[in-house]
Design a protein that fits this description.
Elements: H1 10-36, H2 38-54, H3 66-80, H4 82-94, H5 105-127, H6 130-140, H7 146-153, H8 157-174
Length: about 180
């Protein structure tokens, strides 16, 4: 985190931090909500920024962009709540698709098809290792690049690719789409 030119001290750090919060809170929150549910996302997203503020002095912009650093903190907090995440995916895996009534035909067909896959997707996510799930969901929910994930998790770039490939293969199998490739 850089201090604004011509300023120094705690107020400048807090001003910069407020800018970071405004820029990244929604993305961090969306990622956490996708992993653990909205009921805990507020608290964990806030905790992410509390930790970032506490550790701002150890942030090294040459190692990772601030966005990747924040997602790394969020992913570590999600890992601490891993049991909650596992229970959530298992519960979603047991839920059957609910029928939707009326509406525009195309939209209804899309929603029903997506809801029909939800239990299989949840079971597939529950079957992934923590490391595979972290990489897959950083791509799917946070839209991070391989390089950003590498920096956020502190793993080699190639490891990101191999974990993502394994995770996608397992998810395709869970959805009954083994022969299909990702776009």
């Amino acid at each position: 985190m850089k201090v604004r030119p011509g300023t120094d001290g705690p107020s400048a750090v807090h001003a910069d931090f407020a800018d970071l919060y405004e820029r990244f809170f929604a993305d961090i929150h969306r990622y956490i909500a996708g992993r653990l549910g909205r009921d805990v996302a507020d608290d964990i997203a806030a905790d992410t920024f509390v930790i970032a503020l506490r550790k701002h002095g150890s942030f090294d912009a040459s190692r990772a962009p601030v966005r990747a650093w924040l997602f790394g903190i969020a992913t570590n907090l999600v890992a601490q709540h891993r049991r909650t995440e596992q229970r959530r995916y298992r519960a979603l895996g047991r839920v059957s698709a609910q029928e939707r009534a009326g509406g525009h035909e195309d939209r209804v067909v899309s929603v029903v098809a997506a809801e029909g896959m939800r239990p299989q997707l949840a079971r597939g996510l529950a079957s992934l290792s923590r490391e595979e799930r972290d990489v897959l969901l950083l791509v799917a929910l946070a839209d991070l690049s391989h390089e950003e994930i590498s920096r956020a998790l502190g793993i080699p770039y190639g490891t990101v690719g191999s974990r993502l490939n394994r995770a996608r293969r397992k998810i395709r199998a869970a959805l009954g789409q083994e022969g299909q490739r990702d776009e």
